[in-house]
Amino acid sequence: MAGLFCRVLFGDSLTSKQADGSAGEGVEVVDVAQMLLAAVRRGDPAGNQASV
Q1: Which of 7, 8, 16, 46 sees the fewest Cβ atoms within 10 Å?
Q2: Mean pLDDT of successive 10-residue segments in the chain (52 residues)?
C-alpha cells in the first residue's frame, strides 16, 4: 500500500510541475513493476518475445 501512496504523491507533484511549466507533458510517474513489464513485453535484444 505504501507504494501506491508514494505514486500518488509523485503524481500530484508532477501535475504541479507540469502546470507551472517546469516539467514536460511527456513525463510520467511509473513504478518499477510497470517498467519491468514494459521491458519484458519489448522482448530481449535478440528479438525473442517473452510471453506474459
Answers
A1: 46
A2: 76 95 92 88 65 54
